From TrEMBL:
<dbReference type="InterPro" id="IPR032466">
    <property type="entry name" value="Metal_Hydrolase"/>
</dbReference>
<dbReference type="InterPro" id="IPR006680">
    <property type="entry name" value="Amidohydro-rel"/>
</dbReference>
<dbReference type="Pfam" id="PF01979">
    <property type="entry name" value="Amidohydro_1"/>
</dbReference>
<protein>
    <recommendedName>
        <fullName>D-hydantoinase</fullName>
    </recommendedName>
</protein>
<keyword id="KW-0479">Metal-binding</keyword>
<keyword id="KW-0378">Hydrolase</keyword>
<dbReference type="GO" id="GO:0005829">
    <property type="term" value="C:cytosol"/>
</dbReference>
<dbReference type="GO" id="GO:0046872">
    <property type="term" value="F:metal ion binding"/>
</dbReference>
<dbReference type="InterPro" id="IPR011778">
    <property type="entry name" value="Hydantoinase/dihydroPyrase"/>
</dbReference>
<keyword id="KW-0597">Phosphoprotein</keyword>
<dbReference type="GO" id="GO:0016812">
    <property type="term" value="F:hydrolase activity, acting on carbon-nitrogen (but not peptide) bonds, in cyclic amides"/>
</dbReference>
<keyword id="KW-0614">Plasmid</keyword>
<feature type="domain" description="Amidohydrolase-related">
    <location>
        <begin position="51"/>
        <end position="437"/>
    </location>
</feature>
<dbReference type="InterPro" id="IPR011059">
    <property type="entry name" value="Metal-dep_hydrolase_composite"/>
</dbReference>
<dbReference type="InterPro" id="IPR050378">
    <property type="entry name" value="Metallo-dep_Hydrolases_sf"/>
</dbReference>
<feature type="modified residue" description="N6-carboxylysine">
    <location>
        <position position="152"/>
    </location>
</feature>
<comment type="similarity">
    <text>Belongs to the metallo-dependent hydrolases superfamily. Hydantoinase/dihydropyrimidinase family.</text>
</comment>
Amino acid sequence: MTQFDTVIHSGQIATADQVFAGDIGIKDGRIIAVAEKIAGGERRIDAGGRIVMPGGIEGHAHIAQESSAGVMTADDYLSGSISAAYGGNSSFIPFAAQHRGQSIDHVLETYGARARRSVIDYSWHLIISDPTEAVLQDQLPRAFQQGITSFKVFMTYDLMNLGDGGMLDILTVARAHGAITMVHAENNDMVKWMNRQLAARGLTAPRYHAISRPELAEEEAINRAIQLAKLADAALFIVHVSTAGGAAIVRREKFNGAKLFAETCPQYLALTRDDLDRPGTEGAKFMCSPPLRGRETQDALWHHMAMGTFESVSSDHAPYRADETGKFTAGFDVAYPKIANGMPGIAMRLPWLFSEGVVKGRITLEQFVALSATNAAKTFGCTTKGRIAPGMDADIAIWNPDVTRTVTLADQHDNMDYTPFEGLQITGRPEHVLTRGASVIADGKLVGTEGQGQFFGRAPVDLRARPGVALPEFDPAQNFGTELR
Ligand SMILES: [Zn+2]
């Protein structure tokens, strides 16, 4: 008889397809058996009354990352990964950010050193802000060889945005290697024009941050990004969709066959632009880009989530403390454009989605698994993660679905001085989290150790059922154009 290192027994196993009663046998860090009953095991974890599901894969987090303005996030790979684990994640894919003038090799070396502290497994999406010939021809292919199969670009921020031509160059390189390009889609000139209008009227409070980045600016940029990707026949992932209009464009273009993926984030469903009106410096805590929207947007985004418009719900954890090291590096009494953008939430993504989504009946438990882990594994080529099946890494979260609590800052276990979700009542909590069979969280307490996480390389994006869109200009029968892309 096989001797298992660990057996998780008596739980309800939840996958992206089904929920069933069963046991999981783990050996050497991998799931080797899933069956009705499994005897033995050096360690037996009783999951009676609990849900056993793939550990979350956090696909959008800013950890130990400098902004283009040079502000460092409050969370490094130790605090960030601990917070992620408390939130039911067994792996994450933060960003490794290239700033202008840096080589990709240097960026990956830097983040490699930073990530060694992680308690959960990690990989990176590469942010590209300086697509020189050397980057495009030499450095990105080399990064791809190392299993970095996703690149992120910005359509906004002066120091980050590449312009349409730069995006087409990245998309073309990504396509050649099977990489997916992620995009922050907001129209930079629309935002800058709004900033000038507001500044001229002396409107500088945090609430005007939301006004300065209109829904139209996102919708226009999402549409443009998709058309650029269609021209290059490349896979595209729209990050943090925050508008009903943007989601509708994604849905339409997916239906038309575009090689398209998208996510939204809890903050766009849990909070509104009214939160930026909180007094004093409080409003700044709710500044992120794209900004929080109105109540009716939340209903639309929930509908899109239930209908499958989004592959993932991600946190966009961007931990800038509400002090002079984070939000207020330029001072406390400054206009909104000088306040750092972003909010924390890596420990809240899954508990919030479970409580508001599954417990309240807006999405199924199977959808929850897909949105939290399985789809991210497919999109980002995590071939051994995000699923409960023989041969997969034993990346597993065990949830108590019944426990109710009030969200507090202490609960986040990050290095922040606030949580935007403070005071919310939520139901359901991850009690155990395993990464490759080793416990990181046990009975709701941290047992993982610094450096326990390992880097994982990734495979090309899974483009099955996304044929792409035939363009008449590239029709082979017309005998022109095909060799162009
Ligand atoms: Zn982000």
